[in-house]
Amino acid sequence: MKQYSDVISAYVIMLGLIILVGFLQSWSMALSILCFCLISAVMTMGANIQWGYAGLINFGIMGYTALGGLAAVLVSVPPVKEAWQAGGLQMVICALIIASMVFSIRFILNKYKKSSNRNYIIAFVIIVGLIFLRLISGPSIHLIESVNPATTGFLGGMGLPIVFSWIVGAFFAGALAYVIGKIALGLRADYLAIATLLISEIVIAVIKHEDWLTRGVKNVIGLKRPVPYEIDLQTKQWFINLVEKFNQGALNLVTDVLEREQLLKQLVIDGSTVFVKLCYVGLFSIVVIILLIVTQKALYSPWGRMMRAIRDNDEAANAMGKNVVKQHLLIFVLGSAVVGIAGAMMVTYDGLFTPGSYRPMRYTFLIWVMVIVGGSGNNFGAILGGFAVWFLWIEAAPASLYLINLFTSGLEETNALRIHLINSIPYFRLLVMGTSLLLVMRYKPKGILPEKIKHI
Amino acid sequence: MDFINSIVLLLNYIFVPALSYGSQLALGAIFVSLIYGILRFAYFTAGDLMSFGTMFTILFTWYFQSLGISLGVLPTALLAIPFGVIITILYVLAKDKLVFSYYRTKKSPPVMLAMVSIGTMFVTQAIVRIVIGPYDRRFFDGEKFILKANEFKEMTGLNEGLAIKSTQVITLLVTIIVVFILFWFLNKTKTGKSMRAYSDNEDLALLSGIDPKKVVMITWVIAAILATIGGTLYGLDKSFKPFTYFNNMLPIFAAAIVGGIGNPFGAFLGGYVIAFSEILITYAYKKFFVYILPESLEPEGLLQLLSTDYKFAVSFSILVIVLLFRPSGIFKGKII
After folding, report:
1. CATH 1.10.3470 at B2-325, yes or no
2. At what angle do helices B110-132 and A189-209 cross, to 10 degrees?
3. Are A165 and A344 in contact (CB under 8 A)?
4. Domain limits of chain A?
5. Is the CB of B310 less than 8 angstroms away from the CB of A209?
6. Would an 8 Å CB–CB cutoff place A320 in contact with chain B?
7. Is A1's pLDDT higher than 60?
């Protein structure tokens, strides 16, 4: 128990802070912070699998998050029948062409020795394939996008419950990671970082501009929820009774019947948002706990020891007969798949998919700050990092507003400097993030909860 | 006549814009490459350092404008660049002293330093946004065009016009001067040679009495100069927006790696490779072929290889291809 004391105290402080937000600001706010903390925790666990276990830098987190989000759209939105009739068949043919291109290139790679002729043949296959793709897809994309463009204009999805997308998102992200890993994993650490960063930008560019698949920057809104809607809850008798029970004390103070009715109504409305968010917290917690158990087991299994050996000295591990390349690829895929789950969870929570909002600052670098601050190589540390940094990210704005008001209290309300500072509050969070990252790297380079290795 | 028209068309829409955009990228790529060669880490603050330098240039420009100082037909920003450079130099040197020097003396792995540069990226970005705000700003003044499309048409009697913006010419001239001085400095002066030696082999350089502190300091100074100039030129040509500058970090990295990272001359050329391929691949060639082909063969579509939405994706794909087939970059050669 003693060895876990720092973990427990860190988590108690964290939860205490969130509860404090509940008392000081509002419970709805506290719960939405908690929800995003849990989503961030899943992301950091994914990044931690890659960086902490295997020492692989992945700056492409944004790309996997977006793919997870895309999975949520493709799973939950009902199919658009007219669009399928207009150009669905052609798109399927295009998919087949891409598949046959991949297989023929693989075949050529396996069959022939390395030579310039082989490269020419591959280039030829790619160019011919691209021309066919352009010719077949061009008109049908136009047809699909012109089917009721204000609301649909895309092929739609499968119309399944959105929770399935968490698994599908993992598969999407894992598949992308497999391709990227095959291409880029041989690179040196900092090259790998840049390459993954750029590849994730390509992924975002595709998602943004292939409207027939994703609706692009027109966004997909109104995704179905896995939890009840507030409006439905407010009319349910059992829920009203529940709220009444919870707030017995406050309700009893009011004697007037009409006033009591009013108060109850307000309480039910407030309660419904809290209840919905609680449902999300429950769902997300299940994911986090399952992932935590699995990753913890993996970390202390022979496989985890092998990964640490590869991370700390890949040449020695290679000499011991471990297949470093294969294990790197495996862990790259696994970590990215976890990030894909988080991406799908986030879109589920938001209920909308906005490709334009995926930016590297928020979805790649912030996640890295979480991993480094929390403690790489330690799952509890990674989760804590997700919680703490997200909390800071949100609460930096009110905190800096308070500080600015404090320091400029000598100045007048209309002072230009004061107004300027108050207008630029959202950017103080970047300052807070940067300095906290720099401070942690300087004085606690292994993070708040450093990696613990049991020496036998 | 049609043939000349088609050439002018390409010059106007591809060659001139790509040349100026490439110069702006090249200046950034050179300093990223220099930092990689001498300090040995990927400097993720690159784009934001450019916006930092540009921000101060803009502030000084506004100050000069308020005093009524101007350069006539030339943009006032050119006068403000030296002041912006000085502040940027002070900023990077302070940053090195406070942040980077600790990891350098500890001989931390390059990855650690790259992470630290992400920390400074956050801080720099915050400073820029707090001081000047995240909005789009234009700070160009003076004469906008050297050659207007209409004038060109009248002059030559062609159908196609050729417009040359003064910012494009300024960009090209300044880049040529700066790059010329830089390579003269690196190849001919003692300090420059010691920098190259340090980048080639640190231990040997230290043994032969090269002062590492001086080498590092000069590298930062050069980085600050190039960042401010490159950023200001970009801002004059297009506009200043912190988010765009942060995004420019990506093609800059692509240029530096394509040119062989650690090799400033390669990075210089890499900037043009990236710029030209971005514009060549996303340009719609329909009009060009209308001029050049007989009427019966006139194309129907736009003849665009990729839509302009994928501009960034093009440069990154080139980077990925280069990484796959020539990880040391197109223009190999010695380091620095």
Report:
1. yes
2. 50
3. yes
4. 2-79+156-443
5. yes
6. no
7. no
